[in-house]
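Section handout, structural biology tutorial.
Before the tutorial, make sure you can parse a SMILES string by hand: atoms, branches in parentheses, ring closures as digits. In the record below the ligand is zinc ion, and the chain has 242 residues. In the tutorial you will relate the predicted structure tokens back to the input. Do not try to memorize them.
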Amino acid sequence: MSGAITPSRTATWSRSCADATMSSMSRDVVELQLERVKAHLVLEPELSLIDCGYAGSVPGIQRGIAANGRDPATLRRVVITHGHPDHAGGARDLAAGGADILIHPADAERLKITWRDVVRQPSRGHVFAAMTPEPPHFHPIEDGDVLPMLGGLRVVHTPGHTPGSVCLYGERDRILFVGDVLQRRFGRVSFASRLYSDDYAAARRSVKRLAELDVKTVVFSHFTALEEGAAETLARLAREVG
Ligand SMILES: [Zn+2]
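Predicted structure of the complex:
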């Protein structure tokens, strides 16, 4: 295990620990690198997690929590940016461990889809839903809800990638968690994947709302966080939508 800490509270540090690699982009946010996706741990007295990887990710999440000096059994809530299997797959097991699962109802509904439904009505969205274990219960989150994390984390409904995709905005830290609503391929920020989005045009339109926020840091699920020129980048994308 090795690491380097710089004085700035937005500075990045990282260390390796089993299969979880962590770096922090805000005072209280730690990145957990899971298999092919990142989850974000919010280290406050109430422990929260944003997204939870594929089914089977829970041991890695628990190791990541423990590596940060916290008890995995005290995980209070998991906020799901959308119902794709690499973001919501661990939710059932984490719910069984006592965590509240928060997800937009439009995506929670889709997690009820079974392989039988896929056979009846095949689509990529249905296949992804059938791949994702449905949590036994969930707490619906809607546009405008403010979650008790990071001084108030606001839910911004940004449908398109999936119907229930949400971004999470923390005004205090000017931090925006975008899930898969934006990508950062080869360093350049672009719209959601056309291939993996239910409604690509809607996904693009949703980005206009993000440009109205005062953002310093954009946190992605599959790419390195953007900490330089975030506002200009969001404004550029909004202009591209027209
Ligand atoms: Zn996705």
